[in-house]
Design brief:
Elements (H helix, E strand, L loop, with lengths): L21 H18 L1 H17 L28 H25 L8 H16 L9 E3 L5 H10 L5 H5 L32 H18 L10 E6 L6 H5 L1 H6 L5 E7 L14 H12 L2 E5 L6 H6 L4 H7 L3 H9 L2 H7 L5 H6 L5 H5 L8 H13 L5 E6 L7 H4 L13 H10 L6 H5 L11 H12 L23 H5 L5 E2 L1 H13 L8 E5 L9 H7 L1 E2 L19 E2 L5 E2 L4 H12 L1 H4 L5 E7 L4 H13 L4 E6 L18 H5 L5 E4 L4 H17 L5 E5 L5 E2 L8 H6 L1 E5 L6 E5 L3 H16 L3 E6 L2 H11 L5 H6 L12 H7 L5 E4 L4 H4 L10 E4 L10 H8 L3 H12 L1
Parallel strand pairs: 1-2, 2-3, 3-5, 4-5, 7-10, 7-11, 8-9, 11-12, 12-14, 13-14, 17-18, 17-19, 19-20
Antiparallel strand pairs: 6-15, 16-18
Helix pairs in contact: 1-2, 3-4, 3-5, 3-21, 4-5, 4-17, 7-25, 25-27, 31-37
The protein binds thiamine diphosphate.
Thiamine diphosphate (TPP) binds next to helix 4.
C-alpha cells in the first residue's frame, strides 16, 4: 500500500516536515486501509467527510484539499484494455514525428527567417495521436478540436500521411503567400478547408473551447440541433495556462456541467524562455486551480514503465522523492541520461535506489512520462469522455523536445530549436527506428509508407471508423432568407417627432427580428451584464435568458410584465461581466454555419469602449475564423456618453475596426441608416453567405429620426451620401454618428449667420470609404483585393468618396465622435482641402455640449473650422 503524504499548504507539492509519532500515524492509516477493504470506498468517503466537518468545526487547520499525490489519477487496475495495435501506432507516430521535424528543419535550411517549432509537437505527439486514432470524431456532427497552435507541424505531417496534403505542401511550410503552402498556425482564413479554430494567440483556444462547448448545449436546449455525444477537445500548453483568457471560463464550464468538454494540458514543464514553474510544480498548481473551479482532474503522470516500480514501493518513497522535486529539477532530468537520473534522483534514498537496482541506466533512460505512453493516454481519454456532470482536464506530464536527445530534449532553449545538424537528425532516426537511409535523413526527405502498407491501412481504417479526417473545415450550411425590407419599416419611416437613441432603435429592430418566422429562431442576442443600460430588459420576457437549468427561483420582479425570465430554451446569452466570454459565445454562434452546418445570427451588444479595446485579439480571431454576425458598440463615441468619463468613452474602436479586413464598420446617425445596414448585412451573411461581420456603433443620445431619403441606400452602404445639398454650396460638411447632427446645425448657422451655403454629407462608414478607395487604387495589393472586390464595373472606377465629392466645390470639413485619425482615414482620396475634427486626448465627464466644445466637435467648432478653411 502506498503511503499518502500530507501536503503542506505553503508548498503543496512538497512533503510536510517529519512525522512526530510514526506509530500512531501507522495505526490510523492501517485502520483506514481496513475500512476501505471491508466496507468500501463509499463508506470511506462518508467517514472522511464527517471527519472533515468535525475538523472544521474545531477549527483544525486543513491542508488544501484540491491536490492529490504526484501520480496517475487512474489506477492500474482501473485501466481499460488498449484497443488498437500499439506497435503500428508507435510506428505511425514516429513517421509523423519525422515529417513534422523535417518540415521545420527544411524550411529553415532554405530560409532561416521562416521559423517554426519542433520541440512542442515532439512533446505533444502521443497526446494528439491517441486522439486521432481513437477519439476525435470528424464532421459537422463530430467533435471540435482546438489544437495547440505551434504543434501545427504534427497535424500537417499526419494529414500528409492521410493523403490530404502533398509533399509540395510540406515543402512550403510557413509560405502561404503562394497559395500552395502551409500556414504557420491554425488559420481558417488561410487554410479554409483545413483549420477550424485559430489558436495562434495563446489563451484564446481555451476560452473559445469552453464557450463553444456551452454553445453546443445552447443549441441542444433550444431545440435547434441535437448535439449529444459531441465533445470539444482543447489542447493547451502549461505555459499557456498563465494567460488570463485560459482561466477565464473555468468556473462557467463547471457551473454549466460541461461534460462535453475535455482540456488536455501538455505539461512539458517548459515554455519559451524556460521552465513554467521552475521552483514549483505546474501540475499541482493547475490541479488545485481546476479542481477548485469544479473540474474533474485526471493526472496523467507516469507511463506503464513506472507501474512495476510503484508496485514495489512499499513505503511510498517514490512519491516522497517526486514531491520534493521541483519542476526545474524535472527539466534537468529530462535533459540528462539514465545515469544522471539514477545518481541524482533514485540514489537519494536507499529504499529508492533498491527499487531500480535491477535496471540498467538505459532502462532508466527509457522510463517515460505519462504523456508519452499511448496506453495511459488512452486510459485518461477513455475516462474523460465517460465522465458525467463536469468538464475534465487531463494534466499530461511530458518532456519538451521528447526524442530530440541531447540536441533538444528538456533543453532550456529547445522551444526555438529549428535547425538540427546531420548528427542530430541521424540520432533522431535511430531513436524512433525510422526506415530511412542516411541519405534520406540528411536530405530531410519526407516519408510516406506505401498505400497498402499496414501502417497506412491502419491509419485510414481508424479515421474511417471515426467518421473521416480532421481537422477539416466545412461551409455546408443552408442559406437563410434575410427578413424583407418591410420588417424594418418602422426604422425606415423615421420616428417623426419622437426622440429616440439609435440604441433604442436597435433594440426595437432586434425585438422585431426575433419575431421573424425565418430568422427569428437563429438569432443569438448576447450581452455582458449591460442589457438594462441599453434598454433591453423587455427582451428578457420576450425570449427569455438562456439557463441550462431553467429558473430555480421566483424572480423578485415576477409580478411585473417584463420580469427577469430565465429558461432552458431562453434565447439571450446573458454572460455576466466578461467581455472575453461574451465575444467567445458570439464567435461560437458566428461560426455555427461551419462547425455545425446551422447558420446562427449573433448580435453581441456591448459598451463600445469594452469591445475592440478590451478584447481586440478575440475579434481578430473571429475574423480569422470567418465569423458571420453583428457586433454593436453601444453608448459609443467620446461625447455622447456624457457623464461616464475617461475609461468609458470610446474614441478609437472605429480605428481598430478599420484594420480588420472582414469587419464592416459603420457609425450611423439615423434609424433608417441602421436599418439599411442591418438589412444588407443579413442578406450578405445569411443569403449570400459571405464571410464578414458587422461592427455598428449605436448611441444613447435621443433625437428625432427622419425617414429614409429617396435613393440614399447605396451611399449608406458604401459609406457616405449627401443628406442636404444646398444650391451653390461653397463648403462640404462631412460627419458620422451623432456628430452628423452637429454638422447639420453648423450648416444652418453658416447659412443663417454667414450666408455661406454648405452641403451636409452623412458618412456612415469612414472605413468602408477607405477600403473601397484602397481597392479602387490601381495598385491595390492582393491582400486588399482578397477582401474587397469592388461592387461596380469600370464605369465607377473612382473611389466612392472621390465620386461623391468630385463634383462639389469648396473645402471639406469632416468630424466624428472618434479620434481625428478616424476621419483622416479617407484623406488621401479627398479631392480638395480637408479639415479633420475629432475627439483626441483623454476623455472627460460633463454635459454633451461641454464635451463637444472641449474636444472641438460641436456645431460652433465646425463653423469656426469651416470659416478658417474658407479664408
Ligand atoms: C498571446 C501570445 N503570446 C505569446 C506567444 C508566443 N509563444 C508561442 S509558443 C510560446 C510558449 C508556449 O509555451 P507552452 O504553452 O508551455 O507550450 P509548449 O510549447 O511548451 O508546449 C509563446 C510564448 C503567442 N503565440 N501568443
Amino acid at each position: 500500500m502506498t503511503q499518502l503524504y500530507e501536503i503542506a499548504p505553503w508548498a503543496f507539492w512538497r512533503v510536510t516536515p517529519p512525522d512526530a509519532d510514526p506509530t500512531e500515524t501507522k495505526e490510523w492509516l492501517e485502520a483506514f486501509d481496513a475500512l476501505v477493504e471491508t466496507e468500501g470506498a463509499e463508506r470511506a468517503t462518508f467517514l472522511l467527510k464527517k471527519l472533515l466537518d468535525r475538523a472544521r468545526a474545531k477549527r483544525v487547520p486543513l491542508p488544501p484539499v484540491f491536490n492529490t499525490p504526484y501520480k496517475n489519477t487512474i489506477a492500474l487496475e482501473d485501466q481499460p484494455q488498449f484497443p488498437g495495435s500499439l506497435e503500428i501506432e508507435q510506428r505511425l507516430a514516429s513517421i509523423i514525428r519525422w515529417n513534422a521535424l523535417a518540415m521545420v528543419v527544411r524550411a529553415n535550411r532554405e530560409h532561416p527567417e521562416l521559423g517554426g517549432h519542433i520541440a512542442s509537437y515532439a512533446s505533444a505527439a502521443d497526446l494528439f495521436e491517441v486522439g486521432f486514432n481513437h477519439f476525435f470524431r470528424a464532421g459537422q456532427g463530430g467533435d471540435l478540436v482546438y489544437f495547440q497552435p505551434h504543434s501545427a507541424p504534427g497535424v500537417y505531417a499526419r494529414a500528409f500521411l492521410e493523403g490530404r496534403l502533398t509533399e509540395d505542401h510540406l515543402a512550403n511550410y510557413r509560405r502561404d503567400v503562394s497559395g500552395k503552402g502551409l500556414s504557420s498556425y491554425c488559420h481558417p482564413w488561410l487554410m479554409p478547408d483545413f483549420w477550424q479554430f485559430p489558436t495562434g494567440s495563446m489563451g484564446l483556444g481555451p476560452i473559445n473551447a469552453i464557450y463553444h462547448a456551452r454553445f453546443l448545449r445552447y443549441l441542444e436546449n433550444r431545440g435547434i440541433l441535437a448535439t449529444q455525444g459531441r465533445k470539444v477537445w482543447a489542447f493547451a500548453g502549461d505555459g499557456e495556462m498563465d494567460e488570463p483568457e485560459s482561466l477565464a471560463g473555468l468556473s462557467l464550464a463547471a457551473r454549466e456541467g460541461l461534460d462535453n468538454l475535455v482540456f488536455v494540458v501538455n505539461c512539458n514543464l517548459q515554455r519559451l524562455d524556460g521552465p513554467v514553474r521552475g521552483n514549483g510544480s505546474v501540475v499541482q498548481e493547475l490541479e488545485g486551480l481546476f479542481a477548485g473551479a469544479g473540474w474533474n482532474v485526471i493526472k496523467l503522470m507516469w507511463s506503464s514503465d513506472w507501474d512495476p516500480l510503484f508496485a514495489r514501493d512499499r513505503d511510498g518513497v517514490i512519491l516522497r522523492r517526486l514531491h520534493e522535486t521541483v519542476d526545474g529539477e524535472f527539466q534537468t532530468y529530462a535533459a540528462t541520461d539514465g545515469r544522471f537520473n539514477r545518481e541524482h534522483f533514485f540514489n537519494k534514498y536507499a529504499e529508492l535506489q533498491a527499487i531500480v537496482a535491477h535496471m540498467t541506466d538505459d532502462d532508466i533512460d527509457r522510463l517515460r512520462r505519462g504523456g508519452h505512453d499511448p496506453v495511459k493516454i488512452y486510459a485518461a481519454y477513455h475516462a474523460a469522455v465517460r465522465h458525467r456532470g463536469q468538464p475534465t482536464v487531463i494534466l499530461a506530464k511530458t518532456k519538451k523536445g521528447y526524442g530530440m536527445g541531447h540536441w533538444g530534449q528538456g533543453k532550456m532553449g529547445t522551444h526555438q530549436q529549428k535547425k538540427l545538424d546531420d548528427a542530430a537528425l541521424l540520432d533522431f532516426r535511430d531513436r524512433f527506428a525510422l526506415p530511412l537511409s542516411d541519405d534520406d535523413v540528411t536530405a530531410l526527405r519526407f516519408y510516406r509508407p506505401a498505400q497498402d502498407s499496414p501502417e497506412l491501412r491502419y491509419l485510414h481504417a481508424r479515421r474511417q471508423a471515426l467518421g473521416g479526417y480532421l481537422p477539416a473545415r466545412s461551409v455546408a450550411a443552408p442559406p437563410l432568407a434575410a427578413p424583407a425590407r418591410e420588417a424594418l419599416a418602422r426604422l425606415l419611416e423615421g420616428t417623426r417627432d419622437r426622440e429616440q437613441s439609435t440604441t433604442m432603435l436597435f433594440v426595437q429592430l432586434l425585438s422585431q427580428l426575433l419575431r421573424d418566422p425565418t430568422v427569428g429562431k437563429h438569432i443569438v442576442p448576447i450581452v455582458a451584464d449591460e442589457a438594462r443600460t441599453f434598454g433591453m430588459q423587455s427582451l428578457f420576457r420576450q425570449v427569455g435568458i438562456y439557463s441550462s437549468v431553467g429558473q430555480l427561483y421566483d424572480p423578485e420582479d415576477q409580478d411585473e410584465l417584463l420580469y427577469y425570465k430565465e429558461a432552458k430554451d431562453g434565447q439571450i446569452l446573458e454572460e455576466g461581466i466578461t467581455e472575453a466570454g461574451a465575444i467567445s459565445s458570439w464567435l461560437a454562434a458566428a461560426t455555427s454555419y461551419s462547425a455545425h452546418g446551422v447558420p446562427m445570427l449573433p448580435f453581441y451588444i456591448f459598451y463600445s469602449m469594452f469591445g475592440f479595446q478590451r478584447i481586440g485579439d478575440l475579434v481578430w480571431a473571429a475574423a480569422d475564423s470567418r465569423a458571420r454576425g453583428f457586433l454593436l458598440g453601444a453608448t459609443a463615441g467620446r461625447t455622447t456618453l456624457s457623464g461616464e468619463g475617461l475609461q468609458h468613452q470610446d474614441g478609437t474602436s472605429h480605428l481598430v475596426a478599420s484594420t480588420i479586413p472582414t469587419c464592416r464598420a459603420y457609425d450611423p446617425c439615423y434609424g433608417y441608416e441602421l436599418a439599411v445596414i442591418a438589412q444588407d448585412g443579413m442578406r450578405r451573411i445569411l443569403e449570400a453567405q459571405e464571410d464578414l461581420f458587422y461592427y455598428v456603433t449605436v448611441m444613447n443620445e435621443n433625437y428625432a429620426h427622419p425617414p429614409l431619403p429617396e435613393g440614399a441606400e447605396e451611399g449608406i452602404l458604401r459609406g457616405m451620401y449627401c443628406l442636404q445639398r444646398r444650391e451653390g454650396a461653397r463648403l462640404q460638411l462631412l460627419a458620422s454618428g451623432t456628430i452628423l447632427r452637429e454638422a447639420i446645425a453648423a450648416g444652418e448657422i453658416l447659412e443663417r449667420e454667414h450666408r455661406i451655403p454648405a452641403s451636409v454629407w452623412s458618412v456612415t462608414s469612414w472605413t468602408e470609404l477607405r477600403w473601397d478607395a484602397m481597392a479602387a487604387d490601381g495598385a491595390a495589393p492582393a491582400a486588399v483585393r482578397e477582401v474587397r472586390a469592388r461592387p461596380s464595373g469600370p464605369a465607377d472606377a473612382r473611389p466612392w468618396v472621390a465620386r461623391c465629392l468630385g463634383d462639389t466645390s469648396g473645402p471639406i470639413v469632416a468630424a466624428s465622435d472618434y479620434v481625428t485619425a478616424v476621419v483622416d482615414l479617407i484623406r488621401p482620396w479627398v479631392p480638395r482641402r480637408y479639415v479633420a475634427l475629432g475627439t483626441d486626448g483623454f476623455g472627460r465627464s460633463n454635459t454633451r455640449a461641454q464635451l463637444r466644445a472641449f474636444f472641438g466637435v460641436g456645431a460652433d467648432d465646425i463653423v469656426r473650422a469651416a470659416l478658417r478653411a474658407l479664408e
